[in-house]
Amino acid sequence: MVSVAMGSFMHDVDVETKKATFAMGCFWEPDVLFGSYKGVIRTRVGYTGGTKKNPTYKSLGDHTEAIDVDYDPVAVKFEELLDVFWNNHDPSARMTRQYSSFIYYHDDDQKKSAESSLQERKAKGCVLTQIVPASEFYEAEGYHQKYRLQQHPWLVEAIGLVRNDQNSLVRSHVAARLNGYVFGRGGKEALEADIVRLGLNDEIAKYVRQYYVKFEGRGLVC
Ligand code: MHO
Questions:
Q1: Which of 79, 108, 154, 181 would you call most buried, defined as having the most Cβ atoms within 10 angstroms of its Cβ?
Q2: Which residue has the higher pLDDT, 56 or 5?
């Protein structure tokens, strides 16, 4: 087991969070979108919704690739996260179970908001998205967590993490944010604000800006 010094950088954030869980195709993309979104503290990608115990990427059974988001409900409303969900995949596409569209609600309020957003969306066309209660979430393998960040070994090391180390990559707030920024998501203003808020040094800031610009505006990837 790799042990990681989590003391420096803003890996841990001590605010009360709520969970939101979505499936919207390959989970790498939602990881960059939500990780760099306003009010999001942590993300993890994994498999959920099925019956198979301990699924893996290679042996998924009846599970679906999903993202589990810890958000600060004071900073962002669940309804905004629903907008990110609807606006960043095609809910009318007929997909295999692995890549199907689901909203997994955690309480009655989320269920109601999800249902009303579904009705609005249906007024615009076909929607295959299903709204179901959240069930056991199995974290994906280390190499899937913060996948875009992990394409930058220098940066992973610079923020004190270790590639493929599932636990620290899942837990780290700064990893969630940078995973989006290095893939051109999250917005330039949010990036600049986070450079200050997260206390990133000049070398790291320069590196992240460079990749933000490189990938900004690019389409989906997986
Ligand atoms: N195109 C990717 C999909 C990965 S996603 C996590 C691959 O070939 O592995 O399903």
A1: 181
A2: 56
Confirm or reject: Cβ of 26 under 6 Å from ligand 1. yes
The rounded distance, in Å, linking the Cα atoms of 59 and 138 is 12
User: Can you give the residue ranges of every domain in the chain?
Assistant: 3-139, 142-215
Ligand 1 atom closest to residue 140's alpha carbon, by position in its atom list: 6
CATH class for domain 3-139?
A: alpha beta
Sheet holding 40-48, edge to edge: 130-133, 101-105, 18-24, 64-71, 40-48, 137-139
Q: Model pTM?
A: 0.94
Opening angle at CA 74, ends 113 and 172, nearest 5: 100
Under 8 Å between Cβ of 134 and 48: yes
